[in-house]
């Protein structure tokens, strides 16, 4: 790549025009996939200064695992690096080299787990996506924020690529390197906005909460998230969905292939709705005529046959297990006062969110509001409500903004029904 190709595009004459971010400042470096190259990167980033822009690419939609197949970094004085974690398995030496620096990550919740899997765990983070939400930007994707805040148009054509591909094509690598090219500048500009709007303390609390959050527990009955489940009408058909989902999951995990590439959700739902009586009938279903479905036909039929023979007592329940309140649409009939409390609480929190240019869900979790309204404290004063919010993960800035209005909402009751 020539020096001219490694420069950013010139400033446009029209200040409202965004510039295409097509080239890399330092050119495209080689992928780090040897011990000697990794040692050089560790030394370079340890010697750099300031925060570190970090990103990771997975192969979602292609692989079963959520592992990182490429890690991108950039730091002042260190330049950019593209590290292939697959040959190493462990990148803790690289993580240790930058552990004292702030890590700038866009949508940190998406990348922290796969980074931790290879030994890279930050002590402090700056999440540009979350910061964008706090500032009220309507679109908080990286490309949108870079365009809105810095005036550059980013390339996003390889966002859904199969990053487990080896060797990785050069255009994909340029795309990946560009993802960290502007993160440091974006972070600086966004911090300035947060401070101007009095939201810097909020952001610091949110970033700390990301790192202190416990690992996500697996959701119960993951098979219930099969797309198209609304077409499944009875418990026997639910058992077929469960059996096929679990059979597919075992194959996918063993082969490290995305489950949908082995058998699409549409096929599972079609089989559950049709309830085939034998293997020949199953093979005639439209969704089972593809090569992927046909390869494991014996497994699919055995799963369906097992579900067909289950005793009634072993069939799954119609609804998923849930430890929270019932769906809000049922409250008016089951507990009119709870419905009135929820309506008042939602309206009050919505007004505060609008006044501060925040998405309501970033001001307070909707689930927390529902739980508070459905089962309020016996004596719903301000201090009791604040304690409830903290126990449900609310940060202090959220407690301070919403505590009083929620305490007031808990005193609301449903209008008395007319006797006429």
Itemize the secondary structure elements and their pairings:
Blueprint: E1 19-21, E2 31-32, H1 35-47, E3 49-57, E4 70-76, E5 79-83, H2 92-97, E6 102-105, H3 108-117, E7 124-127, H4 128-134, H5 142-150, E8 152-154, H6 170-181, H7 183-196, H8 200-212, H9 235-255, H10 259-262, H11 265-274, H12 279-284, H13 291-295, H14 297-309, H15 331-334, H16 336-355, H17 360-363, H18 366-374, H19 382-391, H20 396-409
Parallel strand pairs: 1-8, 2-5, 3-6, 6-7
Antiparallel strand pairs: 3-4, 4-5
Pfam families: DNA_pol_A_exo1, DNA_pol_A_exoN, HRDC
GO molecular function, one term: nucleotide binding
EC number: 3.1.13.5
Write up what this structure looks like:
- The chain is an alpha/beta fold and 420 residues long.
- The protein has 3 domains: 3-212, Nucleotidyltransferase, domain 5 (2-Layer Sandwich); 222-314, DNA polymerase, domain 1; 328-409, Orthogonal Bundle (DNA polymerase, domain 1).
- Helices cover 49% and strands 9% of the residues.
- It has helices at 35-47, 92-97, 108-117, 128-134, 142-150, 170-181, 183-196, 200-212, 235-255, 259-262, 265-274, 279-284, 291-295, 297-309, 331-334, 336-355, 360-363, 366-374, 382-391, 396-409; strands spanning 19-21, 31-32, 49-57, 70-76, 79-83, 102-105, 124-127, 152-154.
- It has a 6-stranded mixed sheet, with helices on both faces.
- Helix 3 (108-117) links the parallel strand 6 and strand 7 (124-127).
- The chain is flat.
- The relative contact order is 0.08.
- Mean pLDDT is 92; it is low at 1-13.
């Amino acid at each position: 790549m020539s020096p001219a190709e490694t420069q950013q595009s010139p400033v446009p004459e029209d200040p409202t025009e965004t510039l295409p971010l097509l080239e890399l400042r330092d050119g495209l470096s080689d992928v780090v996939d040897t011990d000697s190259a990794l040692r050089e990167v560790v030394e370079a980033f340890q010697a750099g200064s300031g925060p570190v822009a970090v990103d990771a690419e997975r192969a979602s939609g292609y692989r079963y695992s959520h592992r990182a197949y490429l890690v991108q970094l950039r730091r002042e004085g260190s330049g950019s690096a593209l590290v292939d974690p697959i040959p190493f398995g462990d990148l803790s030496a690289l993580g240790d080299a930058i552990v004292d620096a702030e890590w700038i990550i866009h949508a940190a919740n998406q990348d922290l787990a796969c980074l931790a899997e290879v030994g890279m765990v930050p002590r402090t983070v700056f999440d540009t996506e979350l910061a964008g939400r706090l500032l009220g930007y309507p679109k908080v994707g990286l490309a949108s924020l870079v365009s809105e805040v810095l005036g550059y148009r980013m390339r996003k054509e390889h966002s859904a690529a199969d990053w487990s591909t080896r060797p990785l094509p050069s255009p994909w690598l340029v795309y990946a390197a560009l993802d960290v090219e502007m993160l440091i500048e974006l972070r600086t500009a966004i911090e300035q906005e947060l401070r101007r709007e009095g939201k810097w303390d909020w952001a610091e609390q949110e970033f700390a909460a990301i790192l202190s959050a416990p690992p996500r527990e697996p959701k119960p009955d993951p098979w219930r998230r099969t797309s198209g489940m609304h077409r499944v009408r009875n418990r026997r058909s639910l058992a077929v969905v469960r059996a096929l989902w679990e059979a597919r999951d075992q194959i996918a995990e063993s082969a490290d292939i995305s489950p949908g590439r082995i058998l699409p959700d549409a096929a599972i739902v079609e089989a559950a709705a049709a309830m085939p009586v034998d293997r020949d009938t199953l093979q005639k279903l439209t969704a089972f005529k593809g090569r992927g479905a046909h390869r494991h036909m014996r497994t699919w039929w055995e799963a369906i046959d097992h579900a067909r023979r289950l005793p009634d007592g072993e069939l799954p329940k119609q609804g998923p297990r849930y430890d929270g309140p019932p769906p809000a649409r049922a409250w008016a009939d089951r507990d009119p006062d709870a419905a009135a409390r929820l309506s008042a609480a939602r309206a009050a929190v919505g007004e505060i969110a609008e006044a501060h240019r925040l998405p309501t869900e970033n001001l307070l979790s909707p689930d927390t509001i529902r739980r508070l309204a459905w089962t309020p404290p016996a004596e719903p004063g301000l201090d009791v409500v604040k304690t409830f919010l903290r126990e449900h993960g609310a940060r202090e800035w959220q407690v301070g903004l919403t505590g009083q209005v929620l305490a007031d909402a808990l005193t609301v009751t449903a209008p008395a029904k007319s006797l006429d």
